[in-house]
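Hi R.,

Here's the chain you asked about this morning:
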Amino acid sequence: MSSKEKVIPQNGFKTINFIQFSFYTLFFVTPLLLWPFTSEVFEFNKMMFVYAMTIIIAAAWAIRSFQEKKFEIARTPLDLPLMLFLTSQIASTIFSIDRHTSLWGYYSRFHGGLVSTLCYVILFYALVTHFSGQAKAVRNLLYTILATAAITSFYALLERMGIDKHIWVQDVQNRVFSTLGQPNWLSAYLVAILPLSLFGAMNTKNLSSLPAPSPALAPPRSS
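And the predicted structure, written out as tokens:
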């Protein structure tokens, strides 16, 4: 084991592995997930999956804390901005003229409200806490993200060739959306992944010794 690797207590090892595997599943499945038997084919199903995985990850985190008899959370430079933003979301929901929408987000998608924001905050801290100092886990997460982006891009190319043009009312060949449901969302997703793709391409030979990138990570704090 590298000297830079974080030492994991034996009683929490399996739980941390489970949490890391849950993140691999989250990052791999979410962009690809769609279900044609719901009124909103794409985002609703993705968000239900995100909510389910958040519950699973948070529960595993709680179990780990119980096993180790302490609660650890990584400190980052984003702590204050995130807490201020979350506080503003809570206040907005309390004083909203439509609390249902403020709580759950855009109707039919269940995204953009307080619940989704809270889930993202939980996932952020769970990720930085359980991946900090874990170089192998960070590499696996990078590979997972790139693999999903490759599948999404490949399907977009097939869509451009007309593989599913008979399914959609939209002119999907000229405005491909792959598994994301909207051309702008597909573009935003791939643009967000592009820096990781370039990094991986330029560091192919060095990925085996890649340290955990942690400019925003500090050692977890116990309480």
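The beta strands are 72-74, 105-106, 111-112, 220-222.

Let me know if you need anything else.
M.
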